[in-house]
Amino acid sequence: MTAELGLAALWLAAALALLQIAAATLGLRREGALGEQLRGAVRPVAVAQGLLTAIAFAALLAVFSGSDMSVALVAENSHTAKPWLYKVAGAWGNHEGSMLLWVTILGLAGGAVALLERRLHERTLVATLGAQAVIALGFYAFLLFSSNPFARLSPAPPDGLGLNPLLQDPGLAFHPPTLYIGYVGISVAFSFAVGALVTRDVGPAFARAMRLWVLGAWIFLTLGITAGSYWAYYELGWGGWWFWDPVENASLMPWLAATALLHSVTVVATRDGLRAWTIMLAVVAFSMSMLGTFLVRSGILTSVHAFAVDPERGTFILALLALYIGGALALFGARVGTVRAGATFEPLSREGGLVANNLLLSVILGIVLIGTLYPLLAAAMGTQLSVGPPFFNATAGPIALGLVALMGVGPLLRWRRDDKDALVSRTLPALGTTLLGMAGFFALGGVTRPLPLLGLGLALGLAVASIAPLWRRNLRRTPLFTYGMVVAHLGIAVSLFGMAADSVFTEEKLVAAQVGQPVLVGPFSVTLQGIRPEIGDNWSALEGVLRVQRGEGTPFLLRPQQRFFAAPPTTTNETAIRTEADGQLYTVLGRQGADGRWQLRLWWKPWVTCIWLGGALVALGGALSLLGRLRRERQVRVDPHPTERWT
Amino acid sequence: MKRWLLWVPLVGFAALLGVIAQGLLKPADRTVRSAMIGKPVPAFRLAAIAPGKPGLASDDLQGGQPRLLNIFASWCIPCIAEAPQLLRLKQLGVPIDAVAVRDTPDAVADFLRRNGDPYARIGSDRESAVQLALGSSGVPESFVVDGQGRIVLQHVGDIRADDVDAIAAAVRNAR
Amino acid sequence: MKRLLLLAAVLLSAPVLADSRLPPASFADTQLADPAKEAQAKELMATLRCLVCQGQSIADSDAEMAGDMRALVRRRIQGGERPDAIRRWLVERYGDYVTYDPPFGPATALLWIAPLLMLAAGVLLARQAFRKKPR
């Protein structure tokens, strides 16, 4: 019964999306009372649609948590004996369920826009909700016609097949929802852009409404990438944390676009410049999140991060991508020329810095995009080739360092126009720190490779520069969003420091260890005490017991494992990691050698934790910014007809 | 701003879509093939691994007669599936040599006892060095080598029943 | 005793994969004595593609063949060979697929030039924002 209720809710939601599109389109064309009524209907319909998707998703959660094996999806992806958390997480640990989660977040976001957005011109809001309904309708069709999560199975099996053991990990259980919230937030920004194009209403009010959604989405995308990187780091067992793998790039590209959008939308909101560019970026950001979903699900590129793939689903997502983005870009080409040109400005100004920021971020995005897809292009031309870290590091690396240098200067620039000499004196402390830091790491730390040396110096300089906007300010009266910017930029500095430090200071020890004989790695002495068997729910393992001592400190044990799963037959390395204040000791148990000794892979990675700590700081900065912006929006008196000045 | 510039994104997107659609609808062959076709077999000398059977050296592949070089391993399951086809090829008069990858004498002897022995020589390649030198990326794989020791054909994966005629023909034509 | 039996059971059930039972090649997981040479080997290994994996370099793959390729790289570096020569040797056998550092050539010209082109186009586009007079 519950499953049928969910399916009915889904059909109803799809019908409402259709109604929403019709009401919005007709309402925008008709003048007079009828048009007004039609436009007035759009908001409540959007809210109802959001509620229905929530009901559908609740129904899915209910069948999963109650282990209703007569639902095919539950039987295929769950097991009666599974812990409750993973039963619930199983609801979105598969294609159909995750798509339903996608439309649920989309529906709720649409409802939230309809309920909360009071600043935007009514027609623009109606057009925005119409666009949102078009996006939702495509995904409803996808679910109902090719990926029904509520299909029944007869006869129902008693227990179910179970969730892939590798997915029974709290990190992975919450990774997809995080990314989806980010993607959906981007889709709302996209709808705002389309809405604004339809009504030619691109201005500060539109920018302020869109900024909140971009910020929200960006926070979740940041968290998603940070968590995904840490997961790859501890799961894959070779100490790497970023591989320029297609699936990783697929999550990086929307983030890059959203970061650029976040900065350009501020220019529209504050100075009413970069109008067309901001619209373009919103379209690009959404297309990157769709492309990311497509790349992950279609299996078109080989990736370490194996995922259930299906070309047919890929075709559907590709068709939606073509429809939405093609449509939006056609609208862009036809309409943007008639949107009034935005303000132009002085090169040496905050907005000038933000233009440079957008330029560099877009080029990095372009590099990642072309590097990721180039093997496909080459295959179409009949050559097999691989594009990997050497390409990305050589091309995107220097530009990223340039961007970091710019980050040190940008926030110190004044809006409208700045004075060169004054700017130099403001950036002097950061510049000095950078040079001193580089000299120090060169002379005392023995770092000679130029790129990491520059990275370390810039990280220190950027840390100083990020805090500089608070210098000589009344900290009490500084708005929260300024703190947000400071924290986010500081997070980048911290993360960059971690990356550069990892690349130069990491110590690696690969040894065939003899029981009882200590191995030295970094400041640690590691002794293999023995190998023990371990048995888990659905795996057996060999566990190395390592006794570790740092200098004269208290010894502790680390237990890296080699795990064997029976079905499907897989071997995984379970790394054992010790986190210290100044880095991590990363240990992996390898195979047994011919002489009976056990292979150990040991890494001492000074400051490596900074990489993810920095990511978390960036997300925290975003959250502070969002809070600050929300608070400011409340304080500003709402103008009943705010956008008339711009239309 | 120039008007035509506004349409550049759409054109770029269409190109992107084209590349992706091509990759999705006509997925390229992902088999990694050796780039050594048409080139001489690299010089190597491998010790014997099976009792009463000589090891294998690159010189053995230049005896004026085309041969089939089979890369196999006793621990490889498709190699078991391939064994009957190799025996048929031997019956058809194709001389077959082998490189046993990462293997031990006991395991190879056991494998030959169970699955038949079509090989004239077997060389032991303990660290896949010869496999790598040949540009082979897995087991089983087979190379047709002509009388002068030039590689003329690579067969990736196990030889199925309907591959036998083509491979026998390739060996005949390599004369 | 129970522990020991358990250990034996785990050990026996271990080779569930289609992997050989031989221990890893001598240099697969053993560093070179000379740190400078090991660093060279390490750098090269990170840019060579494991041929049997789903997009991993041989430096971070558990596959046996990746181990054998690491052994090959280390042995040749040990023997004084230049990393470039080893890469070329592998490309001669497996084509450009084996290197993550695509060599510049007709098929990859667009890939390597694109970043510069995009930067140039971006600068031209950005200049529009700075023009003094709106249209």
UniProtKB/TrEMBL annotation, chain A:
Single Gene Ontology BP annotation: cytochrome complex assembly
Record membrane topology: Multi-pass membrane protein
Keyword Metal-binding: no
Compartment(s): Cell inner membrane
Superkingdom field: Bacteria
Presence of keyword Cell membrane: yes
Keywords: Cell inner membrane, Cell membrane, Cytochrome c-type biogenesis, Lyase, Membrane, Transmembrane, Transmembrane helix
GO CC, alphabetical: plasma membrane
InterPro entries assigned: CcmF_C, Cyt_c_assembly, Cyt_c_biogenesis, Cyt_c_biogenesis_CcmF
Cytochrome c assembly protein domain boundaries: 92-298
Residue ranges constituting the Cytochrome c-type biogenesis protein CcmF C-terminal domain according to the UniProt record: 318-629
Chain ranges passing through the membrane: 6-28, 40-64, 99-116, 125-145, 180-200, 212-232, 252-269, 276-296, 316-334, 355-376, 396-415, 427-447, 453-471, 480-501, 606-627
GO function terms (MF aspect): heme binding; heme transmembrane transporter activity; lyase activity
Its job: Required for the biogenesis of c-type cytochromes. Possible subunit of a heme lyase.
Family indicated by similarity: Belongs to the CcmF/CycK/Ccl1/NrfE/CcsA family.
Protein name: Heme lyase CcmF/NrfE family subunit
Phylogenetic lineage: Bacteria, Pseudomonadati, Pseudomonadota, Alphaproteobacteria, Sphingomonadales
UniProtKB/TrEMBL annotation, chain B:
Keywords: Cytochrome c-type biogenesis, Disulfide bond, Redox-active center
SUPFAM superfamilies, sorted: Thioredoxin-like
Organism: Sphingomonas aracearum
Main location: other
Domain Thioredoxin residue range list: 35-173
PROSITE patterns xrefs: THIOREDOXIN_2
CC per GO annotation: cell envelope
Pfam families to which the protein is assigned, alphabetical: Redoxin
PANTHER family reported in the protein's UniProt record: THIOL:DISULFIDE INTERCHANGE PROTEIN DSBE
One Gene Ontology biological process: cytochrome complex assembly
Subcellular location: Cell envelope
Protein name, as recorded: DsbE family thiol:disulfide interchange protein
GO molecular function, one term: oxidoreductase activity
UniProtKB/TrEMBL annotation, chain C:
Name of the protein in its database record: Cytochrome c-type biogenesis protein
Source lineage: Bacteria, Pseudomonadati, Pseudomonadota, Alphaproteobacteria, Sphingomonadales
Keywords carried by this UniProt record: Cytochrome c-type biogenesis, Heme, Iron, Membrane, Metal-binding, Signal, Transmembrane, Transmembrane helix
Species name: Sphingomonas aracearum
Signal peptide region: 1-18
Biological processes per GO annotation: cytochrome complex assembly
Gene3D superfamilies according to UniProt: Cytochrome C biogenesis protein (1.10.8.640)
Top-level taxon in the UniProt lineage: Bacteria
Gene Ontology, cellular component aspect: plasma membrane
GO MF terms, alphabetically ordered: metal ion binding
Transmembrane segments: 109-126
Record's function text: Possible subunit of a heme lyase.
One Pfam family matching this protein: CcmH
InterPro entries (alphabetical): C-type_cytochrome_biogenesis, CcmH/CycL/Ccl2/NrfF_N, CcmH/CycL/NrfF/Ccl2_sf
Family: Belongs to the CcmH/CycL/Ccl2/NrfF family.
Domain annotation CcmH/CycL/Ccl2/NrfF N-terminal: ranges: 25-133
